[in-house]
Amino acid sequence: MAHASIRGVTLHYDIIGNAGPWVAIAPGGRRGIEGVLSLAQRLGNAGYRVLVHDRRNCGASAVSIDGEGSEYEIWADDLQALLTQLGVAKAYIGGSSSGCRMAILYALRFSQAVSGLLIWRVTGGGSAAQRLARNYYGQYIEAAQRGGMAAVCATEHFKARIEERAENRALLMAMEPQRFVGVMENWNRYFVEGADLPIIGATEQQLRSINTPACIVPGNDNSHPRKVGENLATLLPNAELHSLGLADYDLDLSPREEWNEREPALAAIFSGFMARLTVAG
Q: Looking at residues 43-65, what average pLDDT do you find?
């Protein structure tokens, strides 16, 4: 494991594999490296060098409630800066759920640096936007308004960030609650406004402009509806759609165990996609 200072924020990262094309993947939610580590190891064993990192406000990286634009745009800019610092000019970029949003924004902002997109469990729809906006932002806005930054530090997510990186408590406590609330409200607005978009985070016009080859595996629950992933595959000009054969669930989140069981198949889909592009290139 290593750390890097990226745009004023300390990010925790690791590289799996010693040779081959570069890949960078990110998990859903605000999960840390552990959310994609097993998949990264499978891709590493298939001949790729895989960068996994804790995005700011995730895992063992530093907390930073600041910046313009949406949180996933900030994550995309951080990833580009980290890859540049590592000397990586071009990579396959991928992710699940919130990691998918970051990957799509990365392709929009840094198209020349993307070899291809690896996308699974795409988030979209009004139900997902409302529920996740509260989960990611609303509850912390309420905590800051109720009890200042001490209350924010006591929430489950930020308490865990402090346990993984002790310096995060001082970073949070140094923030003015009003500033914290303002940034969170801005990030929340971007998220809620995505309810009517094809996917949260990007318009149809933006998606149609992405010519990068993309490999898409849709989700199977109310936060990641199958139809959202399937529709994304029709909007991206150079996309291929794959299925893991999972049943659909009328639940906020489908059982993680089922996705874990299908991980070897997911890794095979992605490594096969990248191998075909390598041969074609």
A: 97
Tell me the C-alpha to C-alpha distance, in Å, between residue 23 and each of 16, 48, 105, 220.
10, 7, 16, 25
In whole angstroms, what separates CA 162 from the centre of its chain?
Answer: 21
Rounded-to-integer distance, Cα 233 and Cα 104, Å = 12
3-state secondary structure of 108: helix
165 neighbors 70 (Cβ within 8 angstroms): no
Question: How many Å is the Cα radius of gyration of the chain?
Answer: 18
5 contact partners, CB below 8 Å, separation of at least 6: 11
148-187 burial, b at 16+ Cβ within 10 Å, e below that, comes to bbebbbeeeebeebbeebeebbebbeebebeebbebbebb
Describe the strand order of the beta sheet including 239-241 as a list of residue ranges.
Answer: 2-6, 9-16, 49-54, 22-26, 91-96, 114-120, 214-217, 239-241
The rounded distance, in Å, linking the Cα atoms of 267 and 42 is 6
Q: Which domains can be identified in the chain, with CATH numbers?
A: 2-124+199-280 (3.40.50.1820), 129-190 (no CATH)
What would the pLDDT profile of 200-219 be if each residue is shown by its tens digit? Answer: 989 999 999 999 999 999 99
pTM, entire model: 0.96
Contact yes or no for 47/22 (Cβ under 8 A) = no
